[in-house]
């Protein structure tokens, strides 16, 4: 069972998100883009530990990011807290897909709190305004043991 958009909005507002009406969707809440990065060195996934490689934050040109084909990392604009008994999924806005672009995202764990990031895959050049809605967060009921306590807890807050 998935939560209603109003319940997702309440969870985000409890985490300090300042939502406008356009972000409130029937089944979830739209997340905006706060920053776009280009990775500049390799990261590492080891058997023990991990490292996120250096990245460079891109500046908007004029009123928007003008992105060529390629892989980018985006930081969302809203603080998120995934409530207990829930799991979060972030999906791309369909307008991204309709423009040959997408977001790749992973599981948002119960108990995670922070401003998350995702991979923006640009399949055709696109213009994205800072603060534009780019993704949608939905929350589903989920059993879990423990809550998120990893390296990204409270990131970007
Ligand atoms: O697309 C996503 C998916 C998740 N998260 C946040 C919420 C999630 O709870 C946290 C950690 O994600 P995950 O557990 O997949 O990361 P990991 O690489 O396994 O790190 P850790 O070892 O800290 O669990 O990152 C994002 O920012 N973006």
From TrEMBL:
UniProt keywords, alphabetically: Hydrolase, Nucleotide metabolism
Cited InterPro entries: dCTP_deaminase, dUTPase-like_sf, dUTPase_trimeric
GO BP annotations, alphabetical order: dUTP biosynthetic process
Keyword check for Hydrolase: yes
One Pfam family of this chain: DCD
MF annotations from Gene Ontology: dCTP deaminase activity
Coiled coil: none
Name of the protein described by the UniProt record: Deoxyuridine 5'-triphosphate nucleotidohydrolase
